[in-house]
Amino acid sequence: MFWSSAIRRRPAFRDGARLMTPVALGIGAWGLMTGVAMVKAGLSPLEAVLMTLLVYAGSAQLAAVPLLVAGAPAWVILATAFCVNLRFVVFSLHLRHYLMHMPRWRRLVHGYLTGDLSYAVFTRRYPQPPTTQDERDDQEAYLVGGYTVNWSCWILLSLAGVALAELIPQRWGLGFAGVLALVGILASMVTTRLQVLALLIASATAVAAYALPLRLNIVVSIGLAVLACFWLEQQLGRLTRGRTGEAG
Asked: 134-137 contacts: CB < 8 A, separation 24 or more?
C-alpha cells in the first residue's frame, strides 16, 4: 500500500497530520451534523452509514438526501451531486501536475480522499509541483498525512451523528464550524492582489447567484473568478512585455 510505513515514517507525513488537525475538527463538526441531517431527513441508520462510508462528500450528501427521500429519478440525484462537486474538477486540474508521475490507481485514491481543506492545506505548503524524487515522496507523504486526519474526523463524527441523531438538534448549527474553518484557511492563503480579486469575485458571484438550483452558484462563482483572473493575468502579462519592449 502506498501509505505504508515508508510514507508514515517521513517527517512530512507527521507535518501534514499535525497541521490538518485543528481545521479537521471544524470539518468533523460539519460531518456530525451531516450524519444527523441524513437520519432526520428520512434515511435509515443503515442507509446513512453506507452513504457516509461510500460517498465521502458532505455538500453532495446534503444536496442528494432530500431528493432520495422524495423519490427523485436517479439521473436527477446524480446530476445534482455532479454539479455540487464540480469544484473538484478545478482541484484535480491543479493537482495533476503534482501526481501525474504516479500510477493511475494511486492518483484515483488520492483524488477520492483529498477534500477541500486537505487540498487547501497541501497547496499552501507546496505551491509548486515536485522536481526531484525526494520532493515527490515528501509531497505525497504530506498529502496523505493531511487527508488521513481529515477523512478520519469526517467519517468518525459522521457516524457519531448517525448514531446520536435523535439526541442532537439540527438547530445547534455545528456544520457552520466547517465553513468557518475553510474560510480561515482561504483567508490565510490570499497573499497577492490577484488572489484577493479572485476571492472577492467568487464571493460576490456566489451570493448574487444564490437562487440558482442545484447549488450552481458555487460552480458559477468558481468559473467566473477563474476566467476573470486568467484574462486579467494575460492582460498584465501583455502590458509588462510591452513595457519591456519599449525599454529595450
From this structure: 136/101, 137/7, 137/10, 137/12
Report the Cα 29 to chain-centroid distance in Å.
15
Q: Which grid coordinates are listed for 111?
A: 483524488
Q: pTM for the complete prediction? A: 0.73
Note the pLDDT of residue 46: 92
In whole angstroms, what is the distance from residue 144 CA to residue 13 CA? 7
pLDDT for res 12: 92
Give residues with Cβ within 8 angstroms of 192, minimum separation 6: none
Taking Cα atoms as reference points, which of 202, 233, 179 lies closest to residue 23? Answer: 179
> CA geometry: angle at 136 spanning 130 and 138, to 5°?
110
Distance CA 23, CA 121 (A): 9
Q: Dihedral of CA 205/94/145/45: which sign?
A: positive
**Percentage of residues in the chain having pLDDT higher than 90:** 25
Per-residue pLDDT, averaged over 210-221, amounts to 77
**C-alpha angle 121/97/19, rounded to 5°?**
15
Position 106 pLDDT exceeds 80: yes
Question: Does the pLDDT value for residue 39 go beyond 80?
Answer: yes
